[in-house]
Automatic annotation (TrEMBL):
Protein name listed in UniProt: Peptidase B
Domain Cytosol aminopeptidase: 308-315
Source species, domain of life: Bacteria
GO CC annotations, alphabetized: cytoplasm
Underlying gene: pepB
SUPFAM superfamilies from the UniProt entry: Macro domain-like, Zn-dependent exopeptidases
Pfam families referenced in this protein's UniProt entry, alphabetically: Peptidase_M17, Peptidase_M17_N_1
Length: 461
């Protein structure tokens, strides 16, 4: 079911949002039985602390939810969201000292907390429903939540059920829902259409590689999204150890994230010309797998020396980025679970990104802070360009030495975006390893909400 707010109701229970600093005032305004109960339970308004309150007859009259102390409040996003899973069945309405921005965050967090991945096992749904708070754009928040649900579902689905064919089916379903056009080039037709790197990476798998090309909108500035769709990554002939292969169903997280962002843009009726390109492959092991030492010729004509078949994501993205760059939009944006170096640098919570335009980076950082979707800028450090130049070919897919792995990967991709005036690249993790309010363990959307908020300014809308 798509996430929805409950309709306004005179019978909705009040959910009192409070902090340690405002707690005494909040308790003083409660009826006697509720105040006595809260004091007896030691409610201290800590972050994500939730307490249902009784009325004089022993029923429920409302609840308290804590935001935590001011000094530590930035450590916990979506504190109010915990109430969605903790409270009893019924409609609830927010009341308390929340700014408009905090109210919108609380409302979104509530819907995100209600997400369940129940394809393979039934999961108890959250019974508490939130009425849309006054002053928020409820329809926009519902669109954002539904789009994050899509991203999470795609990443959480194991590769047996989310191969290149299933990823194509998901893209087609979204295109049908939103009235977009879609074209797919599959298998050996990739060679005929000059997508040699997508073909070579995916040719060893039973499920054929493909390039998904979705278009929507006829007016406004052009935006092209490119998402890495490696549906499972064994590492190829440079086989990953078992411990490193366990989460590789999420290696199509870039594709899942751009589909989620695309859904936000289309469902909100953004006045743009949108294109979504997804190279969808499996990096498998077979007799016809590409090899270390191979030199490949890309769509752009640049030759690439393969020093590691486990650095395949940048190869498939290279052909897709070249296609995007042939009819330059105002902005090209790529998203990929590309390097372990990015995860080591900033951990799983931050979405590291690269920008060729400082103005885009500043706009995005400000938007990320507004919508509680943290990002962190990384540098296109030009002196490292020599690290990806092997001498025997134009460019190296996996420089030796292990230094600056995320930066060199981003520089590799930038070589294929030469005509478009502005380029953004996200090297995301795409997975939440530890459950938190509104962010269950599993597939994660990263950077999409920040981009959705920032793109109107970036594109001059």
């Amino acid at each position: 079911m798509p996430p929805r707010f409950a309709p306004p109701s005179a019978d909705a229970y009040p959910l009192f949002v409070t902090t340690p600093e405002t707690l005494s005032e909040t308790l003083a305004a409660l009826p006697g039985p509720a105040r006595t109960w809260a004091e007896a339970q030691g409610f201290a308004a800590g972050a994500v602390e939730v307490l249902a309150l009784p009325d004089a007859a022993g029923g429920v009259m409302g609840a308290l939810v804590g935001l935590g102390a001011a000094a530590a409040r930035d450590r916990t996003r979506f504190s109010v969201a915990r109430a969605a899973s903790a409270l009893p069945e019924g409609d609830w309405t927010l009341t308390g000292p929340l700014t408009p921005e905090a109210t919108a965050e609380a409302a979104l967090g509530w819907l995100l907390e209600c997400y369940r991945f129940d394809r393979y096992r039934s999961q108890p749904a959250a019974k508490a429903r939130l009425t849309a708070p006054d002053g928020i754009d409820a329809a926009r928040i519902e669109v954002i939540a539904a789009s994050e649900y899509l991203t999470r579902d795609l990443i959480n689905t194991p590769a047996a059920d989310m191969g290149p064919d299933a990823l194509e089916a998901a893209a087609r379903a979204l295109a049908t829902e939103m009235g977009a056009e879609i074209a797919v080039t599959t298998g050996d037709a990739l060679l005929e259409a000059n997508f040699p790197l997508i073909h070579v990476v995916g040719r060893a798998a039973d499920r054929a590689p493909r390039l998904i090309d979705m278009r929507w909108g006829s007016d406004g500035p052009a935006l092209t999204l490119v998402g890495k769709g490696v549906c499972f990554d064994t590492g190829g002939l440079n086989l990953k150890p078992g411990a490193s292969m366990g989460l590789m169903k999420k290696d199509m997280g870039g594709a899942a994230n751009v589909l989620g962002l695309a859904r936000m843009l289309m469902a909100s009726g953004a006045p743009i010309r949108l294109r979504v390109l997804i190279p969808a492959v499996e990096n498998a092991v077979a007799g016809n797998a590409f090899r270390p030492g191979d030199i490949l010729t890309s769509r752009k004509g640049l030759t690439v020396e393969v020093n590691n078949t486990d650095a395949e994501g940048r190869l498939v993205l290279a052909d897709a980025l070249t296609l995007a760059d042939e009819n330059p939009p105002a902005l090209v944006l790529s998203m990929a679970t590309l390097t372990g170096a990015a995860r080591v640098a900033v951990g799983p919570d931050l979405a590291p990104f690269y920008a060729t335009a400082d103005s885009d980076a500043l706009t995005l950082a400000a938007a990320a802070a507004r919508v509680a979707d943290p990002v962190w800028r990384m540098p296109f450090h030009a002196p490292y360009e020599t690290m990806i130049e092997p001498g025997i070919a134009d460019i190296d897919n996996a420089p030796s030495g292990g230094m600056a792995g995320s930066i060199t990967a981003a520089l590799f991709l930038r070589r294929f975006v030469t005509e478009t005036p502005r380029y953004l690249h996200f090297d995301i993790y795409g997975w939440n390893p530890t459950p938190a309010p509104a962010r269950p363990k599993g597939g994660a959307a990263q950077g999409g909400r920040a981009l959705f908020d920032a793109l109107p300014e970036m594109l001059g809308l």
